[in-house]
Specification:
alpha/beta, TIM Barrel, five-stranded parallel beta sheet, two-stranded antiparallel ribbon, AKR_Detox_Biosynth, AKR
């Protein structure tokens, strides 16, 4: 939980509690949003099944990372699972198209993550139409493109 700075676990838990009480169950985070994955994971302890969690990879501590290989995607999923204290991610998004070096390799790895049950769905953030088309032509089945 991070809105222009670090927010503590106590306040974040209160916000999550109120959201769930009101029927708001979708939470969007990213490994690059400072400590938000860890804080959200703590806030959802014991009620993960009540939430839909989307996270993104490609930035860590606000720093862009180089293009991702299959191994790097696997490592990013592992980090997010650990940070969020969960066994699965509802949606994993590629933060920027430049983080994918090879669409076929990325699609293959994302589909493997789905088959393993580590992610349910995947998608993008900030992809232009031509990048989406190329990813789909490589066999990808994205469910979302979050545009900033």
């Amino acid at each position: 939980m991070n809105l222009f700075g670090r927010v503590g676990v106590s306040l974040s838990k209160s916000v999550v509690d109120k959201c769930l009480e009101l029927g708001i169950n979708f939470f969007d985070t990213a490994e690059g949003y400072k400590n938000s994955e860890k804080v959200l994971g703590k806030a959802l302890l014991g009620r993960r099944q009540d939430a839909v969690v989307a996270t993104k990879f490609g930035f860590r501590d606000g720093i862009g990372t180089p293009p991702y290989s299959a191994q790097e995607i696997d490592e990013a999923v592992t980090r997010s699972l650990q940070n969020l204290q969960t066994t699965y991610l509802d949606i994993l998004q590629v933060h920027f198209p430049s983080f994918i070096r090879d669409n076929v390799e990325a699609v293959t790895e994302l589909e493997r993550q789905v088959s393993l049950g580590r992610i349910r769905y995947y998608g993008f953030s900030n992809f232009a139409p031509n990048r989406i088309k190329a990813f789909v032509e490589a066999g990808g089945k994205p469910v979302v493109n979050q545009v900033h």
